[in-house]
Design a protein that fits this description.
Blueprint: E1 2-4, E2 12-14, E3 28-34, E4 40-46, E5 52-58, E6 69-78, E7 85-95, E8 103-104, E9 108-114, E10 122-125, E11 128-129, E12 139-146, E13 154-156, E14 162-165, E15 176-185, E16 190-200, E17 208-214, E18 218-219, E19 227-234, E20 244-248, E21 254-258, E22 263-268, E23 279-288, E24 295-305, E25 313-314, E26 318-324, E27 331-335, E28 338-339, E29 350-353, E30 367-369, E31 375-378, E32 389-397, E33 405-415, E34 423-426, E35 436-440, E36 448-451, E37 453-455, E38 465-472, E39 478-480, E40 486-489, E41 500-509, E42 516-526, H1 534-543, H2 545-584, H3 590-602, E43 612-615, E44 624-627, H4 637-645
Parallel strand pairs: 1-7, 9-16, 18-24, 26-33, 35-42
Antiparallel strand pairs: 2-5, 3-6, 4-5, 6-7, 8-11, 10-14, 12-15, 13-14, 15-16, 17-19, 19-22, 20-23, 21-22, 23-24, 25-28, 27-31, 29-32, 30-31, 32-33, 34-37, 36-40, 38-41, 39-40, 41-42, 43-44
Keywords: Calcium, Glycoprotein, Membrane, Repeat, Transmembrane, Transmembrane helix
Pfam families: Cadherin, Cadherin_C_2
Protein name: Cadherin domain-containing protein
Length: 656
């Protein structure tokens, strides 16, 4: 953008506004300038018909001679949440106005010219400067006024301002010539200076300077008073024109001192510093006492050689680097950089890890520094939960003799990653049976059943936990606080609700991707808490009902099989004994007895028959076998009469 330098404050320059695809409050709402400056501000608003405008307002008059360009950033901000912004660069070029007249470097220029100077000799040069630019700063020179008729002996170059002779001068005719020179710029502004030309008698021999010795380069650690050069001067003129004086121009570190006769020494007078000045250009001027004096200059170029007197300097006082946990080995996390003001080998910097402080502390084995470029690497994966930051000291050493070094602290911060799932503290999720929460049947909506407590080893948003009801016997009966983990009743308990309610709570963190854990718990809906011990035994019996019933059935089958085997063995034994009795004795009513025994055997009648009562319940913690008294069978009447009429002579066995 082009702005004239003399524009009035308050001038406005329209700008093209930023475009935002959003509408309403999400569109562009404000503009600002960064960094703020004293020259410009931004104006943004709406006109009568609602059309928005954006203008750059000049707050202070510009001066191209003070600042030719102004640059800043224009920032457009919308009203969204979060707000977004866009930036463009504004470059202001200040256009020059011819507001500065030429200025001569001197009000009076004085020149001397030998009377035997040839035609075309330069007498002197006048110099004028104009702070304007372009055509407004182009200067032309011309003679404005000549005292007497001397102007015919001089000519001035309109571009360079050099004043030359157009013919030889005569000292006897005029000792001085006074000229008036006008400098005019392209805009018509001008300035005038006076030029005084003195014609002097001829002194046509300049001094001569002969160098005897010269030392360069010079080490920067030389002591003051060291001789750098030795030279002699002479002049072939005689009298005052042959008297020579020497001077050293504008030097604080060197000086001239007379040695003997016409010899001079160039010596150091202060400590040298190559990093401050690597080369000195010394100009020695030898001038005679003639009128005008003649001079000779000799230039000595003194190079300063480097000495390792500067330690490396880091570009920061300390470094902070970041690495995500679970990083890959040998990952690059940053770099340190140091520079050395020396040159050559004295400036070659190598990097290394400085020994740990105190010395007995073990060195850090997980960080490495490239010795050539200062790149910092992490050698092994880090765990944020074990170490959150590491501090090491990095040393930068040069290759001088002896080497100099500097240390800097590097702080490595481990950035947390979501690598730890939530851990449920309550209710405990170990292998032991989960405890049950007791809920009265009279509980209303909002009743606090329990609270799930969980923690996450991560930090920041990775450790923000939320709770969700994953599964439930009756999902409509319970609600879980997303942030608190509180399990509450969503509605009142009814008689139709199951007595035992099982819930699975999902605990999820806020990482990307999120990790989760589940908490299983149960709740018993009771009419009252008078039999508070019942939930534990009932819960255990119900949880283990299937396995207990299985065990009882297996036991019953085993006992029944054992009983049947015993019964079969007993019956077999009895049958064998009765066959023996039948062979030994002839009894009265044998047919009746055999039929009675056969009927008894066929019916499975035993001497002692037992009846078992089995009580198996799923609601109690034990089962009982009730053993009843034996049932003695009655013998048939015909067997009883036989025993009364004919008792056997002997009995081989008695029934037990």
């Amino acid at each position: 953008m082009l702005v004239p330098e003399r524009s009035d404050p308050g001038s406005r320059f329209p700008l093209e506004g930023a475009r935002d695809l959003d509408v309403g409050s999400n569109g562009v709402q404000a503009y600002s300038i960064a960094p703020e400056n004293e020259y410009f501000s931004v104006s943004f608003g709406s006109r009568i018909k609602g059309k928005k405008y954006l203008e750059l307002v000049l707050e202070k008059a510009l001066d191209r001679e003070e600042q030719a360009e102004v640059g800043f950033s224009l920032i457009a901000m919308d009203g969204g949440a979060p707000p977004r912004n866009g930036t463009t660069q504004i470059h202001i070029v200040v256009l020059d106005v011819n507001d500065n007249a030429p200025i001569f470097t001197e009000e009076l220029y004085t020149g001397q010219v030998l009377e035997n100077s040839p035609e075309g000799s330069v007498v002197l040069s006048v110099v004028a400067t104009d702070q304007d630019a372009g055509p407004n700063g182009d200067i032309t020179y011309e003679f404005s006024q000549v005292v007497g008729q001397s102007h015919s002996a001089f000519v001035i170059d309109p571009v360079s301002g050099e004043i030359r002779l157009t013919k030889p001068l005569d000292f006897e005719a005029a000792e001085t010539h006074e000229l008036s020179v006008r400098a005019t710029d392209g805009g018509g502004l001008s300035a005038i200076c006076r030029v005084l030309v003195e014609v002097v008698d001829v002194n046509d021999n300049a001094p001569e300077l002969m160098v005897s010795s010269f030392s360069s380069p010079l080490p920067e650690n030389v002591l003051p008073g060291t001789v750098v050069a030795l030279f002699a001067v002479k002049d072939r003129d005689a009298g005052a024109n042959g008297k020579i004086s020497c001077a050293l121009e504008d030097q604080l570190s060197f000086s001239l001192r007379p040695a003997y006769k016409n010899y001079y020494e160039l010596v150091t007078v202060s400590v040298l510093d190559r990093e401050e000045t690597a080369r000195y250009i010394l100009t020695v001027t030898a001038a005679d006492a003639g009128s005008p004096p003649l001079t000779t200059t000799q230039t000595f170029t003194v190079d300063i050689s480097d000495v390792n007197d500067n330690a490396p300097v880091f570009n920061q006082t300390s470094y902070t680097m970041y690495v995500h946990e679970n990083n890959v080995p040998t990952v690059l996390v940053g770099a340190v950089s140091a520079s050395d003001a020396d040159v050559g080998p004295n400036a070659k910097v190598t990097y290394s890890l400085a020994p740990a402080q105190p010395a007995e502390q073990p060195p850090c084995s997980c960080i490495s520094v490239n010795s050539e470029n200062g790149h910092v690497f992490v050698l092994r994966p880090l765990d944020y939960e074990r170490v959150r930051q590491i501090e090491v000291s990095v040393s930068a050493s040069d290759a001088g003799s002896p080497p100099l070094s500097a240390n800097v602290t590097v702080r490595l911060l481990v950035v947390d990653e979501n690598d730890n799932a939530p851990l449920v503290l309550y209710p405990a999720q170990d292998s032991s049976p989960a405890s049950s929460e007791l809920v009265p049947m009279s509980a209303e909506a909002g009743y606090l059943v329990t609270k799930v407590v969980a923690v996450d080893a991560d930090s920041g948003q990775n450790s923000w936990l939320s709770y969700h009801l994953l599964r439930a016997t009756d999902p409509g009966l319970f609600a879980v606080g997303a942030q608190s983990g509180e399990v509450r009743l969503r509605r009142p308990v009814t008689e139709r609700d199951a007595v035992k309610q099982k819930l699975v709570i999902l605990v999820r963190d806020n990482g990307r991707p999120p990790l989760s854990a589940t908490a299983a718990l149960s709740a018993l809906l009771l009419k009252d808490f008078s039999d508070v011990r019942l939930p534990h035994s009932s819960l255990a019996a119900e949880d283990e009902g299937g396995s207990l019933t299985t065990y009882l059935i297996i036991s019953l089958v085993f006992v029944s099989l054992l009983f049947l085997v015993s019964t079969a063995a007993f019956v077999t034994r009895k049958v064998c004994k009765r066959k023996e009795l039948k062979g030994e004795h002839v009894l009265y009513g044998t047919g009746h007895l055999q039929s009675g025994l056969a009927d008894a055997a066929a019916a499975g009648t035993l001497p002692h028959t037992y009846c078992y009562e089995i009580s198996l319940t799923t609601g109690s913690g034990n089962s009982e076998f009730k053993f009843l008294k034996p049932i003695v069978p009655s013998l048939p009447p015909h067997l009883n009469s036989y025993e009364r009429l004919s008792p056997p002579p002997k009995q081989p066995n008695k029934r037990k």
